[in-house]
Amino acid sequence: MKKLLLLFLLFSFNIAFSEVISGKINHDDINYSNKIVDYKTGMPLENARISIPDLNYSTYSNSDGTFKLNADVTNKTVLFVEKEGYKTFSLTIDNTVLNSPLKLGIEQTSPFDLQISQGIIRLGDNMFSTNSANSYDFHQSAHGHIYTQTFDKPKSSANQDIVVVIGSLIGVDTKRAKEKGQNRIARVYASPAEVFINGHKIGILDLNGDNIEIVVPKNLIKAKNELKIQAGKNLFQKEYTDYDDIELANIRIEAKQTHSFARY
Ligand SMILES: [Ca+2]
Predict the structure, then answer these.
(1) Distance 157 CA to ligand 1 centre (A)
(2) Are residues 99 and 133 in the same domain?
(3) Which domain holds residue 96?
(4) Residue 176: closest CA among 135, 220, 209
């Protein structure tokens, strides 16, 4: 009897074990050429940290820049790449990331860059449809519907604009996001999130994506400044206020030329 039980255990263990192994082999094949390189030179970068905060996952690139992404990515989430001397890089990914290798070029920091937030900021009220453009069960709950951060006057040269960069944005359920197929909500939609500098509205966030740039009018910049981002509202909920639940990642202030041709 004991022998039979042992045999049975070995048999079931064997099945489970072979499944794990075959799954892993497939995954390794796909993962084979994920790579981090320098954006300008194309040189492979070692020891860059690759992380997915929603999944509590992180890994590092090898000496040839390659890395394996052994994370169970299903819905949209944000992947970060961090390396000293380089701008934090973020990218919205979903399960399609497992079907083709990722080659990510990261940029060296400029002395003018101001990193405003490193990780993920959740705005909203934790009430959202599973058909929303976020649709992930976020790890953190919302900080409320407003994010504020102060920053000193950014340095820039005369021909550069000051730009607010939202590294990654997910969860926006505006009419425009719906028209672009970014969510699966049938009828309702929300107003866009709004971006303010020192109380002046400088732009809206009505589409999800990566590296969204909003130029700050120079006359608004002071010695001390406040960036404010406010989540939109569900325009079809009149009984109570339902804020759009969104995730912002990797917010930066950068000085860059955005209108080089128009000016000269
Ligand atoms: Ca909500």
Answers:
(1) 41
(2) no
(3) 32-106
(4) 209
- Looking at residue 136, what is its pLDDT? 55
Q: Are 122 and 247 in contact (CB under 8 A)?
A: yes
Distance from the alpha carbon of residue 245 to the mean position of ligand 1, in angstroms: 5
> CB under 8 Å to 90, separation ≥6 — which residues?
78, 79, 80, 81, 167, 168, 210, 249, 250
The answer to whether residues 129 and 251 belong to one domain is yes
Strands 103-106 vs 224-230: parallel, antiparallel or unpaired: unpaired
Note whether 172 and 232 are within 8 A (CB): yes
The CA 246 to ligand 1 mean position distance, Å, reads 9
* Ligand 1 center–CA 248 separation, angstroms: 15
Rounded CA separation 118/94 (Å): 21
Distance from the CA of 64 to the center of ligand 1, in angstroms?
Answer: 43
> Which of 83, 106, 129 marks a domain boundary?
106
Convert the pLDDT of each residue in 203-258 to its tens digit: 999 999 999 999 999 999 999 999 999 999 999 988 999 999 999 999 999 998 87
Tally the domains of the chain.
2
